[in-house]
Amino acid sequence: MKFGFFVLSLLLAGCQTVVNNYHGQRLDSVDSFRENSIKGAQEVDINTYRLEVSGLVESPKSYTYSEVLAHASIQKVVTLNCVEGWSATVLWTGVRVTDLLDETGPMPEANTVIFRAVDGYSTSLPLSYVRDKNIILASSINNATLTPAKGFPFQLVAEDKWGYKWIKWVKSIELSSNASYRGYWEGRGFNNLGDLHGPKLEQG
Q: DSSP string of 54-119?
């Protein structure tokens, strides 16, 4: 299985050129990111991987890796800011979360998007924020396919939010009406909104 993943990684990277600037803007190296996940880097078998989209939707979907990538791709230069004090500005390439959600037929009462990862991590964001910001699930950084350490196959690019909202190794997306849902770190005292200019910890 690991050999197959290694071969796939080589094939994906074979025609890629890592970039260090984008439209005149200098980009940080992918090595600027620090490993601080709850269980270490995860290796996902892309042959069995499925991205599940469910919850308050009319038609739940289960996407293969290639089916997700078949959606329209967009690029954004966005800075990830970690509560530990470091940051990295890179070029993210991915698909809009709402392009996937809209294919399932969201129900009117849905107001929250819950993301879950293969390592048990989870977080949530308001549906309005995901729509208004055109939030993407990234499949590459600086034009190179994500590695296991960087969240392969998909990392959420939660711009204007602290790094604990940037969930890696995303395996499911659930539409919910539970606006008070607490993810892994939020359930341990971090602010549920995760806004960069707001408090890092819950007040009170």
A: EESBSS-EEE-HHHHHTSPEEEEEEEEE-TTS-EEEEEEEEEEHHHHHHTT-B-TT--EEEEEETT
